[in-house]
Amino acid sequence: MENLRFLLYEVHTIQDLLKYKRFEHIGGIEEINLLINAAKDIADKEMYPFFKAMDANPVVYKEGKIHSHPQLKNIFKAVADAGWFSSTAALEHGGMQLPFTLYSAAHLIFEAANSSAQGYLGVSTGALELIESFGSTALNEMFVPNMFAGKWQGTMALTEPQAGSSLSDITSSAHPTTNDYYEIVGQKIFISAGEHEACENFVHLTLARIKGAPAGTKGISLFIVPKFIPENGELLDNHVICAGDFQKLGQRGYATAHLIFGESGITKGFLVGEANKGLSYMFQMMNAARISVGQTAAAIASAAYYSSLYYANERPQGRHIADKDLAKEQTLIINHADVRRMLLQQKSFVEGSLSLVYECLKYVDLEKVTEGEEKEKMYLLLEILTPIVKTYPSDAGILSVSNALQVLGGYGFTMDFDLQQYYRDIRIMSIYEGTSGIQSLDLLGRKIPMQNGKAFQLLITEMMKTIFMAKEMDELKSYAEILAAVIATYKTTLHHLLQFAKQGEVEKYLADASLFMELSGIVTLAWQWIKQAIVAQRALSGGGAEKQSTAFYESKMETMKYFFKYELPKNIAISNTLMNPEMVTIKKKMEVLM
Amino acid sequence: MENLRFLLYEVHTIQDLLKYKRFEHIGGIEEINLLINAAKDIADKEMYPFFKAMDANPVVYKEGKIHSHPQLKNIFKAVADAGWFSSTAALEHGGMQLPFTLYSAAHLIFEAANSSAQGYLGVSTGALELIESFGSTALNEMFVPNMFAGKWQGTMALTEPQAGSSLSDITSSAHPTTNDYYEIVGQKIFISAGEHEACENFVHLTLARIKGAPAGTKGISLFIVPKFIPENGELLDNHVICAGDFQKLGQRGYATAHLIFGESGITKGFLVGEANKGLSYMFQMMNAARISVGQTAAAIASAAYYSSLYYANERPQGRHIADKDLAKEQTLIINHADVRRMLLQQKSFVEGSLSLVYECLKYVDLEKVTEGEEKEKMYLLLEILTPIVKTYPSDAGILSVSNALQVLGGYGFTMDFDLQQYYRDIRIMSIYEGTSGIQSLDLLGRKIPMQNGKAFQLLITEMMKTIFMAKEMDELKSYAEILAAVIATYKTTLHHLLQFAKQGEVEKYLADASLFMELSGIVTLAWQWIKQAIVAQRALSGGGAEKQSTAFYESKMETMKYFFKYELPKNIAISNTLMNPEMVTIKKKMEVLM
Q: Pick from A581, A587, A584: which is nearest to B321 by CA?
């Protein structure tokens, strides 16, 4: 909580948002704190106590239905009562019109407490926001109020068995009728929250092709396909079959449905917005979902970090390396340098990732409330940062939780501790909402070249501003100079890759997109660490308002130093690989892997 | 199997062992192949078909007993009937007197098929070898025949709740009596195979302190503590209580017992060898176990690699990056550069690790059959390589299986595929038999300084021999030169660290032992890849006997190139960190992590 307040108010100063008209009804930091504390209360009482139980008694599919944990119903109620489902919706639509940043701060707390449970809530909010943005008034009236109330579950239904990550290849079809609906036929898999027992209806935001639509992503439309159609106060069966639930390694309390439309009868779908623009609408939800996956990964890794930190501060074992006197008591393992390294690595990943998440969240809000050039700038920064904020926290988070487990040694591998569950739960984050490989292609293939590299230029400019500020501070000058040098190498490396693009050698340009992503993640995190260090150092020097304890700020400085010593140098190795002309991942004729 | 034969006969030429007296009763490669094929037969019929079942129906503790999967009994029988429990024992003791390398090759196949099941077999063999080496004739006669027959289970009982990795702090005690036994009192946890239903007796090789023994590791003795004492053809209760089984993230078919000695009655223990020398005896078993953990990690990662390779060759998705024509069918995912990169990474980790394992195994056998300086050389090479061969395959194996899972995308996260189980099973390998942190302290703190750095010198000399050979080959010259340069940096880095040791700054010297381990692993693997490439390139040039297909050798060359482009450059980043004078993992006064 201390760290969240530090990020919100000191590093990213989200109180600045309150000066915009859209948010001026919010009282101030005190009111925000009350809201966040109320979310913490729900997490403490309704969510974390069921974290292990929802894993041990996972969602199961039996006799045509998905059975979920009974607590889920109470969670939906508590979250709806507190208004979180309608928190970002406009006042005029019955919402609380809060900044997305603040909504996300509440969800961060939910994710850390019980990421399976939070999943249901997050996807429902994303779905109703999509209807609010692009759906007709009629559709809004038909679906949104019950979603606000936590009675109906919203979902996103994209993936199909034969298409996976390749959305151009989806085949679910929509046939126009003379009525206000289309007939939907097709199958969707991996539908998170696709069915369960805590809600009475399911509102599937579904991608499908209208008969005769162009091939590829330009022929995809967005439909609302409810499980039951509300008519005159009744719920009529819409013939959405739930054919199964995927049993998973982690997030076992979170349903993952297989849905079939139009097989047992007519399945009606209501077109959202214009035909063939479905994918562009869906990207609103997907972009938010991508930031949210990054945040969830950081939240799980954060819970794992504190769990291992607590253990390291309680568990005596062995003696300090410089004092092997066997007559003395064993020392706490946090005093072993290697344990401390594993803790600092986690802290640097988790808090660096969260800082990046809140950087992006603030841009989301600013994009909504600004105009013209400023709005365009926010849009572009978000475009380039979204694949990074999805990927770095996920990939680094998996390593981070692995380190947390390692701190506990053999105990970490047992079911008696939470670590094994965090280890399983977080593994999906590099796959959800576009795998790390897909995100990397998005970054290097689409976001870097967009508008002649303008988004990239803006990002570098933001980083240089931070460096400039840090250079003015004695304690940070040397780190700022290191980062400036790293950014220079980063640009050289990109320039090297762009030569392939200019020569039309797309395959060579994109072959190592994943490594370019890794490099971008490291550079971006180093930037966020300098940002945090500027605030911490000012507070330590007495120049800023001392809102947290001295130990808190010192700990921030140490973690920044850790990142610069242990993580940032990896950029050299990655650049070295990216500049190496030998191509080994591009398949040549006749060559097989065995 | 193709790769195993390549490593055994072409890279490490284990047929050379047959010229030594100890192994001259073995017919030749044909006989070895028959033995290995017989092991494969057991793995295919008795082990792999139960791989998922032993996980889905894990070992459980109920009413004072551990209940194991019924198939385990058949596995013990098949392995005993084939003679594998007695395979390395001397002919005169009723064994087959096979090289340890060959025994390990059989176990590699078992580990890849079902690592939980193999665990029981491996620890039993290790225990009986220990009795054979250091136990009296009477103890040998009392325990070993039934262990050969797979009727009695051998275990190693080291860990205690309060001591964990710190063996100096074990408190289990042994009280001398006027009879031939000691009375043992104490508790042991995490005892693999400590109790189950497939064997009728358990032979616990137990570390305990004889009353009045010196403090620390110099006061530890080794005892055989059986669950039942054989007397006149009967088995008498020895009051070993099994107080529980640790439920685990992975290897759920493998029992992990909590044992209590001397609480419900007198527990007798029989001293093995001399008093207070227990830890040095145990190191025979531990060193073999450490190589075996490295091999098990590589075996699991190998199974995961082939599983993901098979999937990538079957699953169509998306289109080739340079050909986005939507009218064409989707391409197989193996044709995407990023998928190929993930496969090559796995292949480079798995086959590089296995090559290192077989390097070490050959040294184990050579140490047994050679004399004088040669024997000493084998001993020293093993001393320095053992922590590396335990750690690299485990740490890299965890990443490797994670990549295998990633290749399958969302499917990899479901219980429908094996990947999620490999992901859980392999996680313990960085903890078993001394965590990676402990191994790193062993490497930098004990093995590097031993005999004034002689072991390290010998290792570098071996590497330089390989480099010298590679430099003579046009296709390998440039890679050999790169590795020579990396080794120079490696030595400089070590020299930098040794300055701290010379100044008595032990804490600074050892603070980043884990990074020095990572660096050593990368250098060692690069050496093994050049070794394999020499053989492959000779075969491709027609200069060697072409035992495998051309595609096999080409695939080896590609993987070596992958390792040199993507993995080896990481050495620069690690050296950079190791030479950085800023100390952030050594705790200063008053400073806390939050």
A: A587
| For B342, nearest residue in chain A (alpha carbons) | A585
**Tens of pLDDT, residues B489-533:** 999 999 999 999 999 999 999 999 999 999 999 999 999 999 999
Pairing of strands B201-210, B152-157: parallel
Secondary structure in 3-state letters for B102-134: HHHHHHHHHHHHCHHHHHHHHHHHHHHHHHHHH
Predicted confidence band of residue B592 (pLDDT cuts 50, 70, 90): confident
Distance from C-alpha of A25 to C-alpha of A102, rounded to nearest angstrom: 14
Pair B91, B97: CB distance under 8 Å = yes
The Cα A210–Cα A89 span in angstroms is 30
Contact B341 A554 (CB under 8 A): no
Tens of pLDDT, residue by residue over B334-363, are: 999 999 999 999 999 999 999 999 999 999
Distance (Å, rounded) from C-alpha B31 to C-alpha B29?
Answer: 5
- Pick from A247, A344, A398: CB nearest B585: A344
Within 10 angstroms of residue B122's Cβ, the number of other Cβ atoms is 25
Which residues does B130 contact at the CB level (< 8 Å), separation at least 6? B205, B222, B272, B281, B282, B284, B285
Q: Shortest CB distance from B558 goes to which of A256, A580, A584?
A: A584
Which one of B60, B585, B591 makes the best mutation probe of the A interface by having the most chain A beta carbons within 10 Å? Answer: B585
- Measured CA to CA, the distance from residue B7 to residue B298 in angstroms comes to 14
Contacts of B322 in chain A (CB under 8 A): 506-507
Is B565–A577 a contact, with Cβ atoms under 8 angstroms apart?
Answer: yes
- pTM above the 0.90 mark? yes
Cβ atoms of residues B364 and B291 within 8 Å: yes
Contacts of B582 in chain A (CB under 8 A): 561, 565
Gap between the Cα atoms of A324 and A336, Å rounded: 13
Tell me whether residues B247 and A321 touch, CB distance under 8 A. no
Q: Which of B320, B340, B415, B565 to mutate to test the interface with A (most CBs of A within 10 A)?
A: B565
The secondary structure of A502-543 as a DSSP string is: HTT-HHHHHTTHHHHHHHHHHHHHHHHHHHHHHHHHHHHTT-
CA–CA separation, A456 and B367 (whole Å): 59
> Which ipTM was obtained for this model?
0.95
- Smallest Cβ distance to B427: which of A341, A344, A413? A413
